[in-house]
Known about the structure:
Elements (H helix, E strand, L loop, with lengths): L5 E6 L2 E6 L10 H16 L5 E6 L4 E3 L15 H8 L19 E5 L2 E3 L1 H8 L2 E5 L3 E3 L13 H9 L1 H10 L3 E2 H6 L5 E3 L4 H13 L4 H13 L4 H15 L3 H11 L21
Helix pairs in contact: 3-4, 4-5, 8-9
Amino acid sequence: xxxxxxxxxxxxxxxxxxxxxxxxxxxxxxxxHRELVEAWTRFRDDDEAKVAVITxxxxxxxxxxxxxxxxxxxxxxxxxxxxxxxxxxxPGILGPSRWTDIYKPIIAAINGVAYAGGxxxxxxxxxxIAEEHATFGVTCRRWNIGLADGGTQRLxxxxxxxxxxxxxxxxxxxxxxxxxxxxxxxxxxxTGKSLxxxxxxxxxxxxxxxxxxxxxxxxxxxxxxxPLAEGLRIEAECFNRSIFDSATTEGLRQFRERDHPDRxxxxxxxxxxxxxx
Length: 277
């Protein structure tokens, strides 16, 4: 597929997926939906793609949500399609937003407004880096459009039920600093710097051994909200898949032989925040 409303770029082990409709504040229409499904399929299935960064084109918007001018073109209409959507047999309204099994790391570089479905796509990521002028809100509240791409489920998991319900019920727009304060974003950076910071973080994560990252993310995603005993069972299942991986054997060798990347003579530690005397 040749993309026209998103951009797909590989930078080594990092894949950048960009909403690319700046003239429409990067909102998502039917074509964008199909291209997002293809893009995330490529990323998921590409063994060389280790980390994804999702962002928007321009300096105004990350993504302003669904293109309401498309009307009912984005939603299931027939009883058969509605039933299939209800059963979870469709990827989502605004791309593959209902997918829950991408266990590779995903970082959002939020370079402007993240409204309605755009907020939902920000919540699709594991880590969110926001520019200081970014704003967030369930603005579809004003038009009687419900959240259909994970907002009612992911937002409470990120900020807690009380904060999420306030945003969902009122449609209030918050700025980047408030988003950071309530835990919606991990870091606020100057305008124009979110992609740079996200790529820096993605490069670091991509340089780490990957199998345990995947299984730890899987355990966290699958176990969240379950009884502790069930969550621990899932964690054990994931751990027992990763511990015998060849990457673990190499990691143990590095540790035993003091070949750890954080302890190489004359080089600064590669782990962020780690200091050595």
